[in-house]
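Data availability excerpt. The first of two example chains:
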Amino acid sequence: MELKKKIPETVESYISGFPEDIQKILKEIRATIKKAAPEAEESMSYQIPTYKQNGVLAYFAAYKKHIGFYPTPSGIEAFKEELSVYEYAKGSVKFPLDKPIPLDLIAEIIKFRILINHEM
């Protein structure tokens, strides 16, 4: 009989489900987003951490070899040049775990997403 993995209901429980080295990275990303968007609502959506302020700002998730960061297509498009050193797609970017996570860039993207959502 296979045991079902408990689905995290909070960002804290999501983060605590990872090894300590990954938890540290996830906590840094979380703190970066909260500092860049102090009024954003933090929740879980699609079983990953989600930040909303007048709409979605971004999601993030940990994987075996990377952190997935999902700032919607506008967040990727506006920072295409800065993100060109990473694997990215229409609404997502992969930050490899064997390289420093670009926290300053994440903060810039979040601030941009706040402006975009405010204009809508």
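And the second chain:
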Amino acid sequence: MSHVKAGGTSKNIHNNAGQRLGVKRFGGQKVKQGEVLVRQTGSTKIAGAGTYLSRNYTIHAAIDGVVEFAKRKKTTFSGRSVPRTEVRVK
């Protein structure tokens, strides 16, 4: 027989901080070079003209200008076409 009482399960131990993902600069806003436009997990939005994608899929402004969003169809590796939002700076 065990000499220690049974330990119960704990349900409230997962207390992780959020990653603060999402759109940081919206359409029509003026931005400077290097500013973060979108923080995302995976490439849910694609980088267009005047922007670049960093290693963690964050989209940054490559030039000074105004942010624009547009809908695009992107072809996947399997040939399927999926809708994506393109982020541009003009």
